[in-house]
Design brief:
116 residues; mainly beta; Jelly Rolls; eight-stranded antiparallel beta sheet; 8 strands; 0% helix; RmlC-like_jellyroll; Cupin domain-containing protein; UGlyAH_Cupin_dom; RmlC_Cupin_sf
């Protein structure tokens, strides 16, 4: 039996889809986000892809666990009832299930992600 791998390619330079406004913005500067290479694998119960956001402040509303590797940019994520965490290019982060909070994107921010 062969295993099929799900791969994100050239994440730093990959072309992404059309940006759309953040769903839960905070303040006047509305961030626009887009994704690319979004792939779901029912066999492993996960989806992967690339996500990018312009500067702005908005709430994280995903309920999934998420592992991300930051490709470029800079942001601060503040989990509800938690301390702010700065994320920069080269960092990796694991969001636990039901982790909600506030994204503050300081400069255009790109990451690969795995939702599971």
């Amino acid at each position: 039996m062969s295993e099929v791998l799900t791969v994100v390619r050239n994440s730093e330079n990959a072309i992404l889809g059309e940006p759309s406004p953040a769903r839960l913005p905070i303040g006047d500067l509305i961030a626009y986000a887009c994704t690319g290479q979004d792939q779901a694998s029912e066999a492993v119960g996960a989806s992967i892809g690339i996500w990018e956001s312009s500067p702005g402040v908005f709430r994280r509303h995903l309920k999934n666990r998420e592992f991300s590797h930051v490709i470029s940019g800079y942001c601060t994520f503040t989990p509800d009832n938690g301390e702010p965490v700065e994320l920069r290019a080269g960092d990796a982060v694991l969001f636990p299930e039901n982790c909600e909070g506030v994204w503050h994107i300081h400069e255009t921010f790109r990451k690969t992600y795995v939702l599971f």
